Amino acid sequence: MKDSIVLITGASSGIGEACAKVFAKLEAKLILTARTQERLQPIAESLDCEYYLLPFDVRDRAAVDTAIESLPPEWSDIDLLINNAGLSRGLDKFHEADIQDWEEMIDTNIKGLLYMSRKVVPDMVRRGKGYIINIGSTAGHQTYPGGHVYCATKAAVKSITEGLKQDLLGTPIRVSLVDPGLVETNFSNVRFHGDTERAEKVYQGLVPLTPDDVAEVVLFCATRPPHVNLMDIVMMPVDQAPLMLFNRK
User: Fold this and answer.
1) Among all residues, which ones are annotated catalytic?
2) Range of 41's domain?
3) For residue 175, what is the domain's CATH number?
4) Entry's Pfam families (predicted)?
5) 132-164 in b/e burial notation, b at 16+ Cβ within 10 A?
6) 0.90 cut: is pTM over it?
7) Number of domains the chain contains
């Protein structure tokens, strides 16, 4: 991975931040994206590698286009795209849910991933070199109560990943999907709109995955031989069984 250009969306916290750290250790050159420069800067400064900060919102197609087109020539040949930006909002019953929450999840989890991939993948095909790793979720495999739209977005990520691999057959471009179960990040805090007490209860009494656990799996995918494509990796803590069964002590 030395000197490979790795673009990570949602790099300002959680899994994205953890991915930045593991790839920095291998001396990759990192393009870190998030909505604000202020959140990216301290993370970037803690890394011992070359980096380029690219603040924009993946939900904004024009902003995605402008951001990628603004990359200097020495940063424009992206070797690995990690589509990590994503979120969940709410856990209400379908008929009581906030439609704005639905739109935010759809715009970020599906459309943001599509915009980024559509902008980056053609150049990978042109160069005959590249890898796309999408961060999905076990929620893309089964639906749980209150998860209707979030689970639908992650099922869409699974379908998009499979379709992209099929369409890239015959090229050397690899495509992978990493589907974590319960990971302790700010995910639940975002889902519950800043209700920290409710968010903390999600992880009580069990040992969840950490962002570092997921980042190590992403790194494992990226460092396999060029002829090996790990298509879909489902990972969850020992205290979780598919999908919403937990061993709480």
Assistant:
1) 150
2) 5-246
3) 3.40.50.720
4) adh_short
5) bbbbbbbbbbebeebbbbbbbbbbbbbebbeeb
6) yes
7) 1
